[in-house]
Amino acid sequence: MQTDSKFYLIGGGIASLSAAAFLIRDADIPGRNIVILEQLDRLGGSLDGAGSAEDGYVVRGGRMIESKYLCTYDLFSSIPTLDGAKTVTQEIFEWNQVMQTSSKCRLVRGGRGIDAPEYGLSEEQILSLERVAVEPEAMLGNSSIADQFRPSFFETNFWLMWCTTFAFQPWHSAVEFKRYLLRFTHMVAGFNRLHGIMRTVYNQYDSMVRPLQKWLAEHGVQFELDVRVTDLLLREEAGEKRVDRILYKHRGRSDEIAVGNADYVIVTLGSMTEASSLGSMESAPVLNGKANGGAWTLWEKIAAGRPEFGRPGTFTDRIEQSKWISFTATLRGRDFFRLLHDFTGNVPGEGGLITFADSAWLASIVLPHQPHFIGQPEDIEVFWGYGLHVDKPGDFVKKPMSECTGREIMTEILGHLRIGREAAQILKTSICIPCMMPFITSQFLTREKGDRPPVVPSGTSHLAFTGQFCEIPDDVVFTVEYSIRSAATAVYRLLELHRDPPAVYKGQYDLRVLYKAFRTLHEMTV
Ligand code: FAD
Questions:
Q1: Can you count the helices (H) and strands (E) in the chain?
Q2: DSSP 3-state assignment of 321?
Q3: Which tens digit of pLDDT belongs to each residue from 41-55?
């Protein structure tokens, strides 16, 4: 590295933002030497939050975090909150002392809430779980979860809670499922009350992205928005691949950046929210494809003829298996939250996910602590929800969720909650915005070794891959933590800093953790 080396970070999600922060904090790179190129008009990527009380708020996702997000807390222990009063990590830990997740209504069946549902596993099903947990990844290969369990497993409360907490489907990767079992062993004991799930004070855009963006801006990092990178031109010298030029489009105009010999390029591969689309109270969102954004097309281009850069097709070509819909409801008036408080026994922010067990859409909702957005007016309340089976007709609205407007989605949720008299008024005063995400669980699709490239692929020393589609042993995708870990790994390896990110937590090697998980599973057998 030279003192004037430049760092081009492609994608403006948490992976690139954290890579920039690690470059500044741990490698003393001046912020002015770092450029973040983002195709959208704002930073944050999948970690989003936007909107207003008038037009309705949108969070495509509501994120759960937990105490072993070690890279996340390491990063944010250096980032002040927006008011500079403490670090973001301090804020998260202090907040979760005040607001501890303890659901009294994890499942709803037949219009009634169930407090601490039994897992309902048989001894045979527990043995299958244990087998998958110990079986080497190489042996699980590209099998699906359905390949590893009998159909009856998918009828249990354990599966219902596991699949809706993490968004797994039976056809998803058994390897990924195994990683989750191990990575979250320490949470099995309180899983039916969501014990150990932590939250940020506000939505994650306000609580994480904005403070980080502010810190990076203060350090001089350049953000180039509306810039879609269309290709990387690579040259090979003495067996080493280097990026020569970055081709991009900015407001319809094509241009390029010449990359010097001492410069570095870090690319966020793929994106779970790529090509997502919003509906409205009166319209359903449309289903887009990979051509509607730059993430997959860029990966396809650079991986063509270079197997060491992975196989994007594994993650892009099965939209039917990777799509689902989330929705954000903005409510003027307190009726809905009041009724839910009475129904669940939880105050907003305390309960976490509520899943409607007999919903054909397999719908769930979360009522976060209010306000959920900085600046959200006092008389406005916001909640989030999602459905996993979007092509099945609903139970109260006889249409597939994928064809439903925000109004119809709200109607379905009100139906599952058996809200009758107040329903019309709630509907009248709510703005529900559905969001179709074609690739939302693409990172869970069955895969083989080599489909995800390593963070620093072979034959490169100035190019790295971050995000959800590079391979990091033992850690779990569909998490903020994975993206931040990939960023730390990329920076430390590229710059040969002789340090590693905090090791992935492995509760499975702690006998106390293991015993508690084992005892809980067996105490709740059928
Ligand atoms: P992204 O955020 O996808 O960022 C990639 C960025 O690159 C995007 O901004 C994209 O526009 C840009 N880009 C792509 N291609 C190009 C190009 N060619 N040129 C320029 N820019 C480009 N995590 C948890 O830890 N817990 C949870 O409970 C949780 N729940 C979630 C629920 C939902 C509905 C969603 C959507 C996410 C959830 N996550 C959760 C996951 C977490 O938000 C993501 O893992 C993380 O934000 C991914 O960050 P990233 O930077 O790797 O990728």
A1: 18, 18
A2: helix
A3: 999 999 999 999 999
